[in-house]
Fold:
Amino acid sequence: HAGRHSGDPSHGTQPPAIDSISPRAAVVGAERVTDLVLYGKGFAAIGNTVLFDGAPVSGLLSESGGTILRFTAPTFIPARGGVTGHRVSAGRVLVRVKHAGGTSNAVAFTVREDTP
Structure:
């Protein structure tokens, strides 16, 4: 068993891994659409969920053999675990990808201040 990864690769249930996010910083607000791209590996062909500061963006398809995942940044973070629902505000958020095989590492994304 030396050198084998955990899990049987034949049914592709390994957790996804994120290498980077592009752009790494952007304004996120109700008046605009902010498209983001995650680069990594192990994304499912269909049925990926991005967790953007805990807010789920579900039903995403990956591209390029599970190495590219495009999504639109949510502008509202729903209530969960005692935290009230709130608009996305400036600061650092963590982004993860989840599918049937598990949840990825987190990458940081910076929400920029929306200046008029």
The two ends are 59 Å apart (CA to CA). Confidence is low (pLDDT under 50) at residues 2-11. Residues 50 and 56 are 6 Å apart (CA to CA). The first strand starts at residue 17 and ends at 22.
